[in-house]
Design goal:
about 475 residues; alpha/beta; Rossmann fold; N-(1-d-carboxylethyl)-l-norvaline Dehydrogenase, domain 2; 2 domains; five-stranded parallel sheet; three-stranded mixed sheet; 11 strands; globular; binds D-mannonic acid; 6PGD_dom2
């Protein structure tokens, strides 16, 4: 690499398309605007695919913006290197313990936190956590954070800021909680140091970034004349709201490039998780069951777009406090446009993945608050029931569904063996709290029966 590239100051765990199309671009722009050594070291926690593809172009990549009326491409150079954790976990720890590194960000998806989604606490029986308790070379994201912080403490260094960029409610508090829970089991003094010196700002991240498909790679080669094995495809919109609480205040000048640096992320995060992601998951299950391949296809169907508009208006917005400067009706209208963007081929099947980890923050919190306030919520109940039909593993034409979820096998057997699948699934405590199971029994069972009798499309249309 030429010497004029910035030194590494930031490590990212879980280097997927989302971070490369969102956080990495903001960091690159912040360096252009205000300087600083914020080159990024990417870490893949599982497989070498991204590293191998990116290495061919010295870790530069194309970011393609897919607008409703056409595309534009940019070449992004901010990632300096990519490590594959299972190949050499020590090299990852050494990089994280480097004094020049000040921020470690994560996109490891909901399940990567090894926590119980219903409670937000570390699951000490998770196989990777059990491994990480007994071995100094970790496998899990919490394990890497704790062991690297331990090295920094032992060397007399300051901790790095831990920046969760996953779609979890209070993601800063969740990652802090799992790190502290694990550190306590390893070394209480370490846990006490992290508790007082560590910083875990909460963030709200937003940009629709469908998985890169083989035809996208071919498209980029034709459009740019450059063979790039790892381009990212994204919509024009982007938003990043960050709680401004970094270790010793050290961070790139993100505020200069449109990142909202705020004191309290919670209202932004509720708005985004419940309105964007809640609607996405509802459209994913109802859309898949209705035979729609992508979100844009589902939005082109008046039954589903009418359903989702009514879901926002009557069931989600009434339960939200608008964040400063945001108008929720306008936000919903903008979401409808973003979802309808025909340039974005975001598969319902992709969003349907890992529902057991996503449902609590996307749909269940709103449903419980509405029921407690006496607001009937047939659309939220239908979204939950559609998830139940989906994890049953058979579509409305009797064809198998390839369900991807850490709990897939258990959900399937509970559903198969039950007289009432909704009742059996409501008892899964990783997803539903006992109070929710009680409160949801009637509306979710009614919605489920409707799905069995009438199918997803008709059920949605009746609520459009
Ligand atoms: C989607 C999100 O895959 C999913 O579950 O709902 O990835 C969504 O596209 C992003 O959160 C948008 O910011």
């Amino acid at each position: 690499m030429p010497a004029d590239k910035p030194a590494i100051g930031w490590v990212h765990l879980g280097l997927g398309a989302f971070f490369r199309a969102h956080g990495a671009i903001y960091v690159a722009e912040a360096m252009q605007a205000s300087g600083g050594d914020w080159g990024i070291l990417g870490v893949s926690l599982q497989s070498p695919g991204t590293r191998d593809a990116m290495a061919k172009s010295d870790f530069g990549y194309t970011a393609v913006e897919l607008g409703p009326d056409g595309q534009s491409s940019r070449w992004i150079e901010v990632i300096r290197d990519v490590l594959v954790a299972p190949e050499n976990p020590q090299a990852v720890l050494d990089a994280m313990a480097d004094p020049a590194v000040h921020v470690v960000s994560l996109t490891v998806t909901e399940k990567g936190y090894c926590h119980n989604p219903a409670t937000g606490r570390l699951n000490p029986d998770h196989p990777d956590i059990r491994h990480d308790l007994e071995n100094p070379l970790p496998r899990s994201a919490p394990g890497f954070l704790v062991r690297a912080l331990q090295m920094r403490k032992d060397r007399g260094l300051r901790p790095f800021t831990v920046l969760s960029c996953d779609n979890l409610p209070e993601n800063g508090r969740v990652v802090r909680g799992v790190v502290l829970d694990l550190a306590k089991l390893i070394d209480p003094d370490l846990a006490a140091w992290i508790e007082t010196e560590g910083r875990f700002p909460a963030t709200m991240v937003d940009r629709i970034v469908p998985a890169t498909k083989p035809e996208d790679i071919a498209f980029v080669a034709t459009a740019t004349g450059r063979a790039d094995a790892a381009p990212v495809m994204h919509e024009p919109f982007r938003q990043w709201v960050i709680e401004d609480d970094f270790v010793d205040g050290i961070r790139p000048d993100l505020g200069a490039v449109g990142v909202q640096m705020v004191r309290d992320v919670t209202p932004f995060e509720h708005m985004k998780l419940r309105m964007l992601n809640g609607a996405h998951s509802s459209l994913a299950y109802l859309g898949y069951l209705s035979g729609h391949e992508t979100i844009a296809d589902a939005m082109a169907d008046p039954a589903l777009s009418g359903f989702v508009r009514a879901l926002w208006r009557d069931e989600i917005i009434p339960a939200l406090d608008p964040p400063p400067g945001e108008d929720l009706a306008a936000y919903a209208a903008a979401l409808a446009q973003r979802f309808s963007n025909p340039g974005i081929r975001h598969r319902t099947w992709q969003i349907a993945m890992d529902g057991s980890q996503k449902l609590p923050q996307r749909l269940l919190a709103t449903l419980s608050e509405n029921l407690a306030a006496g607001r009937a919520s047939p659309r939220l109940a239908l979204g939950v029931a559609a998830w139940m039909r989906y994890v049953g593993g058979v579509d409305e034409n009797g064809q198998p569904i390839e369900v991807k979820d850490p709990l897939a096998a258990r959900l399937r057997s509970l559903s198969d063996g039950a007289d009432s699948p909704p009742e059996a699934l409501l008892a899964v405590t990783e997803v539903f709290t006992p109070d929710q199971a009680r409160a949801f029994a009637e509306p979710v069972s009614a919605a489920y029966d409707g799905l069995v009798a009438d199918g997803a499309r008709k059920s949605a249309e009746a609520l459009a």
